[in-house]
Amino acid sequence: MKKLSKSQTRNHGKFWPTVRALIWEKAQQLYQEEQARTMGTDYKGITATHKELRESGYFYIAKLIVLRNLYLEKKNELSQNPQQK
Question: How far is residue 42's CA from residue 55's CA, in Å, rounded to a whole number?
Fold first, then answer.
């Protein structure tokens, strides 16, 4: 019988899997925008791999943007409904 690794048996949360998908989407968007801006008429809409997005820094920038946006959404939500937490 094959033993499962810790990551295979662990229950995944709701926050990070969702946020991670948003981060990859934003990183790809940033990459595409940069390619379109720098390549002009030669732009072909090629998507980058996860490795390329990480190495070029798009993942890190996207992570900051996504987490900041989520924080601001939550902050605005709490300021509109101060009695709920």
Answer: 23
What is the pLDDT averaged over residues 21-50?
91
Q: Is the pLDDT of residue 67 over 90?
A: yes
Kindly report the number of other CB atoms within 10 A of residue 62's CB atom: 21
Of 57, 31, 56, nearest in space to 45 by CA: 31
Give the whole-angstrom CA distance, residue 3 versus residue 75. Answer: 43
How buried is residue 63: exposed, middle or buried, by Cβ count under 10 Å (0-12/13-18/19+)? middle
Considering the entire predicted model, what is its pTM?
A: 0.77
**In 1-85, which ranges are continuous DSSP H helix?**
6-9, 15-39, 50-55, 58-80
Angle at Cα 20 formed by Cα 60 and Cα 14, nearest 5°? 145
As to burial, measured by CB atoms within 10 angstroms (0-12 exposed, 13-18 middle, 19+ buried), residue 35 is middle
